[in-house]
Design goal:
The chain has one domain (about 15-165): dinb family like domain (Four Helix Bundle (Hemerythrin (Met), subunit A), Up-down Bundle). It is built from 6 helices and 2 strands. It has helices spanning about 20-35, 40-45, 55-75, 80-90, 100-115, 140-165, and strands at about 125-130, 135-140. A two-stranded antiparallel sheet has the order 1-2. The chain is globular, with a radius of gyration of 16 Å.
Length: about 160
């Protein structure tokens, strides 16, 4: 089943049925990232071929978006640490390795899956707010956005990785 996409492997244990697509997308993002970053050097991590964002940026950003969307989903505001992280997403940090960034993302996805497992599906249409402007959305909207935004950046990461080959 390893060569089959995550969503085709069946339900993720403990995740409510209506949230399976979010869990599948996050786990697929993680698997693709592991696969396409396995052979990267530290120099390639921060390279910007053809002006594309670096793979390091995408790894930081995907983790940050998941964290922020799940914070808003919990009906909370971002912390000072989360704002600091957001500001650092675009900054090259040669101290960070591919392995560290992938592990940090793994931990964020694991936390997201734990939080998904605790959500009552009856609350999915409850109003939530995005950002300082408090843009009205729903719980399911924030969770879906975390997953689809992660997937969008995985696609961009894959293009950058191919350019580096």
């Amino acid at each position: 089943m390893e060569n089959v996409e995550v969503w085709m492997r069946g339900p993720i244990a403990g995740i409510p049925d209506l949230l399976q697509p979010v869990a599948h997308a996050l786990l697929q993002a993680e698997e693709d990232i592991v696969k396409y970053t396995a052979q990267l050097s530290s120099e390639q991590l921060w390279a910007r071929p053809c002006g594309n964002a670096s793979i390091g940026f995408h790894l930081l950003h995907i983790r940050g978006v998941i964290d922020r969307m799940f914070t808003y989903a919990a009906d909370k505001s971002l912390s000072a640490e989360q704002f600091d992280y957001l500001q650092q997403e675009g900054i090259v940090d040669a101290e960070l390795s591919v392995a560290t960034l992938v592990e940090n993302l793994h931990l964020q996805i694991e936390e997201a899956l734990q939080r998904l497992s605790a959500i009552d599906p009856k609350t999915l249409t409850e109003e939530r707010f995005l950002g300082r402007k408090r843009i009205s959305t729903t719980l399911i909207g924030l969770l879906f956005h975390a997953a689809e935004h992660a997937q969008r950046h995985v696609g961009q990461l894959l293009v950058t990785a191919r350019c580096l080959q």
